[in-house]
Amino acid sequence: MAIKPTRILPPLALGVVLGLTASAAIAEPSNKWRIDFENRSQVAGEIELSLTPKGGQATNVTVPIPAATNDEAAAVLVSNALSSTFGAEVYEVEIDDGDDVLVRANDGIRNFDLDIVRNTADGLRVELDKE
Q1: What DSSP letter does each residue of 33-61 carry, written as one string?
Q2: Where is the signal peptide (predicted)?
Q3: CB of 126 within 8 A of CB of 40?
């Protein structure tokens, strides 16, 4: 029984390679991140973020989010939590456009990864973007 060549394998292999390449690019640390909030929380919950300096240990920050919190109020809550956890000497944290939080590594601080560990505040959308 002979195995017939298939045309599906080359595109599938290319897709896997491109997917792995894209994952590696996303995983690169940056010196500046934007946390973008949209909509409103339908229930009380928590947003847990993880900041990991390149080659360092992760620090998780958990922010309680009350029910009916809109995107601008969520930005204030997260900004305050990050500022109180790290202080101004490590990361500069500011609100931008009312509903975004910018997190920047200060001079001499290593680039860092920022990840959403969990978001249990259903309805409130949180996205991360490198700047």
Answers
A1: EEEEEESB-SS-EEEEEEEEETTS--EEE
A2: 1-27
A3: no
Residue in 8, 2, 65, 4 with CA at minimum distance from that of residue 39: 65
> d(Cα 8, Cα 16) in Å, to the nearest integer?
12
Contact, 65 vs 46, CB < 8 A? yes
Domains of the chain (ranges; CATH) run 29-130 (2.60.40.4390)
Length of the chain, in residues? 131
- Taking the CA of residue 10 as centre, how many other CA atoms within 13 Å lie in the half-sphere pointing to its CB? 3
**Would you write out the chain's pLDDT as a tens digit for each of its 131 residues?**
555 555 655 554 545 444 444 444 456 899 999 999 999 999 999 999 999 999 999 999 999 999 999 999 999 999 999 999 999 889 999 999 999 999 999 988 899 999 999 999 999 999 999 99
**What are the φ/ψ torsions at residue 70 (nearest 5 degrees)?**
-85, 175
